[in-house]
Write a structure and sequence with these properties.
heterodimer, A: 4-stranded antiparallel sheet, two-stranded antiparallel ribbon, elongated, B: alpha+beta, 7-stranded mixed sheet, 9 helices
């Protein structure tokens, strides 16, 4: 097994913004000599930040799935749909692929993201990370799929803009959609706040 | 970089010391706290705003859908149907609905719910909008203070909602006629209200009808108001003839009630209170009749047939109805083996205003005590008042009881001891006429019309012969006599002409006659003078004129 040389061990730091490698100074707070951004050994409060965002997202996940995301008012009926009821009605209409897409993108993916982030955080907090490589891959997956979660929000936005025939049919956004947006945005922020280098620290320390 | 990591260049720049920042508070934890608080706030608010949950029972859930059907008050959403299920006893459908918090005050004990769906009734079409929008549950908010959470939904929409200005009244009738819920109430032919409900009274002997009279017509409902059935076409055939009466075309279709102030003007002070009771009369005439609080029943025994006399027929006193026939029956008297036909009549003594005039012509109302009215009746009978059956309408044969004074009746009296008192009767004039017509018919029957006819026929034959002879005779006369007559006439004319010539003014005979007459006149004068003289001097007959003395 090859020895892993950690930058901080040899007194080297990398600016997170311009990727400038610098020598660590003795001061408590450092600045990049090239771009002037603050340089940290690790993102400060990363775990706390990430956990807070994940908890918020998890809290929002509940109303996002329970509250209607969309109200349809037509001449014939008034209806409201939650994400799940939307999926169900798509299934009833026979649009299996679409239903699957919505289900995966809007229910499974955010849930997975939350669980993955939680898993990452737990492993860090427990000081006994399992397989840093696997965790790292998981994190990358989360980062990648994060953006696709907004598919529902896009769909609603499109419908909202298209179906606005006053007094015959119009759609307005429910609280669920806002909560859902919150979930997606917060998980993305959580992913950003997470310093994946932390995953490897333990290995290097050990 | 492909260079191995061992070769760390020495000229790497050193990180600059930043000015020390104060230790950051873990502000980031505010976020989940905020999310939680906001979430909790929203949940609590929604819970609070949700308002109460109610159960409404209907016989069926046609057109209702959970989470879709709305509860509306004046077409404003005040709640949603959240669940529909069949009741445990499977008799009804329970609709569970969530009412908005602002509308929770509407849930009082007399609040009514009904399903609005398209309906077509005799009075019109309603709920057409629900054809496309789907049914909804409508609410009429009650006025009670008592809260309630379970309601019985109405199967038909209420006619009158509680916020409609006006008042309800209660009518009592023998039967419902052609009325129904929604039948119109008319005031002077104006649609002034509607029948709200009706129910059979316990015992089943009568019907109670609830009506609603809209403002401002309800002000005309006074204690003296009379209500009657204006249902359909009211055609009556009685001793007054045929009568046809209707309110409006719609009332012909679905029945109606009309009202108007009663005949007594004195009682019409102030409008009647809400839920006041009234009697619903069967027709206008009956409604407008004077209400008679005092009723005296008499029994009448008539000799003739009672055919044409019906219960309700008027008892008439020289054209004024003073009572009506109450019942007709047959009595069999075992002893004598005869049948008698008692007619029970109700007389309303109030219609006969008893009073006596004082010397100054002011009217003193009599006392209406039992004894007084007995005395009155007795005196009337003593003056010859009798009851008799008369034909009111020759066309229909309807009869009535007429009270009148008869001069040539044997004295009689009211038999007060019987119950009801027996009033003396007389056989009607028509009966007499019938009798006499009968006897005439009998006499006519005895006439040998056939013999007369035969004889008449022979007579006629003879007459014909005679006429024939006369005819031939006349012809003879015409042939032989006529020329002679003509000649005679011509001669006569000649004679007449001669006569005229003789009598003409210038005729010699005329002239001579004139001269002769002149002479005669002179002679007469002389004679007159002579007579005068002789009158003055009668002695001259003996002695002669004084002048010529002998």
């Amino acid at each position: 097994m090859t020895t892993v040389v950690m930058g901080r061990r040899v007194g080297l730091l990398v600016c997170a913004h311009c990727r400038n490698t610098v020598r660590a100074g003795i001061a408590a707070t450092l600045r990049c000599p090239r771009c002037g951004a603050a340089i940290h050994v690790r993102k400060p409060g990363s775990i706390a930040m990430t956990s807070a965002l994940v908890v918020s997202a998890a809290l929002l996940y509940v109303p996002a799935n329970l509250l209607p995301v969309m109200y349809e008012h037509t001449m014939f009926y008034d209806d409201s749909d939650t994400i799940m009821s939307g999926v169900v009605s798509l299934v009833h209409e026979g649009s299996w692929p679409l239903a699957l897409l919505v289900f995966v993108a809007s229910i499974v993916v955010p849930l997975l993201k939350l669980l993955a982030m939680a898993a990452l955080l737990v492993s860090l907090l427990r000081k006994s990370p399992g397989n840093p490589l696997q965790l790292c891959k998981l994190f990358r997956l989360v980062e990648f799929i994060g953006r696709w979660s907004m598919i529902d929000v896009y769909a609603i936005s499109l419908l909202l803009a298209l179906v606005q025939v006053r007094s015959y049919a119009f759609i307005h956004v429910g609280l669920g959609a806002i909560a859902f947006c919150g979930v997606v945005v917060l998980t993305m922020l959580a992913a950003q706040a997470f310093d994946e280098r932390l995953l490897w620290d333990h290995q290097a320390d050990g | 970089m492909a260079e191995p990591p061992s070769a760390v260049p020495d000229d790497l720049p050193e990180a600059l010391a930043d000015r020390p920042r104060r230790k950051r508070l873990p502000l980031v934890w505010i976020l989940p706290a905020l999310v939680f608080i906001v979430g909790a706030f929203v949940v609590i608010q929604q819970k609070l705003a949700q308002g109460p949950q109610i159960d409404i029972s209907f016989t069926d859930a046609e057109g209702l859908e959970a989470n879709k059907t709305k509860i509306r008050y004046k077409d404003v959403d005040i709640g949603d149907v959240t669940d529909i299920h069949v009741a445990k006893d499977r008799k009804k459908v329970i609709v569970t609905a969530r009412i908005h918090r602002d509308a929770r005050d509407y849930l009082v004990s007399d609040t009514r719910f009904w399903v609005v769906r398209p309906r077509i009734t005799g009075g019109g079409v309603s709920g057409l909008g629900t054809l496309v929008s789907g049914s909804y549950i409508s609410v009429d908010v009650g006025r009670s203070e008592i809260k309630r959470e379970a309601f019985d939904g109405l199967e038909i929409p209420p006619i009158v909602t509680s916020d409609l200005p006006g008042r309800e009244f209660i009518l009592h009738a023998e039967d419902i006629g052609s009325l129904g819920v929604g039948s119109t109430v008319f005031y002077r032919h104006i649609a002034a209200g509607q029948v709200v409900a009706y129910s059979l009274d316990p015992g089943g002997a009568s019907v109670t009808i609830k009506i609603f009279v809209n403002e401002p017509y309800d002000a005309f409902v006074t204690a003296a108001t009379r209500f009657w059935q204006a249902s359909g076409i009211d055609m009556s055939l009685d001793s007054d003839g045929v009568k046809l009466r209707t309110e409006s075309l719609s009332s012909i279709l679905e029945g109606g009630i009309a009202f108007q102030s009663g005949p007594s003007m004195a009682a019409a002070a102030g409008s009647a209170p809400k839920d006041a009771d009234f009697t619903l009369f069967t027709d206008h005439e009956r409604a407008m009749r004077q209400t008679d609080t005092e009723v005296r029943t008499f029994l009448l025994y008539f000799g003739g047939s009672l055919r044409g006399l019906s219960v309700g027929a008027p008892v008439d006193l020289r054209g004024i109805t003073i009572g009506e026939v109450k019942s007709l029956s047959v009595e069999y008297e075992r002893k004598t083996g005869t049948l008698s036909f008692p007619v029970e009549v109700d007389i309303f003594p109030q219609r006969i205003r008893g009073h006596s005039r004082r010397a100054d012509h002011s009217i003193v109302p009599d006392d209406t005590s039992e004894n007084a009215s007995r005395e009155l009746v007795d005196s009337l009978v003593a003056h010859g008042m009798r009851a008799e059956i008369k034909t009111g309408n020759l066309l229909t044969g309807q009869k009535y009881v007429a009270m009148d004074f008869h001069n040539e009746v044997p004295p009689d009296h009211v038999f007060w001891d019987a119950h009801p008192a027996v009033f003396p009767t007389t056989s009607g004039a028509l009966d007499e006429i019938q009798d006499s017509i009968g006897s005439i018919a009998k006499k006519l029957d005895k006439v040998p019309f056939d013999k007369i006819t035969a004889r008449l026929l022979t007579t006629l034959a003879t007459l014909e012969d005679t006429l024939k002879n006369a005819d031939s005779l006349l012809r003879q006369v015409d042939a032989s006599l006529a020329p002679e007559v003509t000649a005679t006439l011509q001669e006569a004319r000649g004679a007449m002409k001669n006569a005229r010539e003789v009598l003409a003014e210038d005729a010699p005979l005329q002239t001579d006659l004139n001269a002769t007459l002149l002479e005669l006149s002179r002679a007469a004068k002389s004679v007159t003078a002579l007579v005068d003289y002789l009158e003055r001097h009668p002695e001259s007959l003996l002695r002669g004129k004084p002048g010529d003395t002998p």
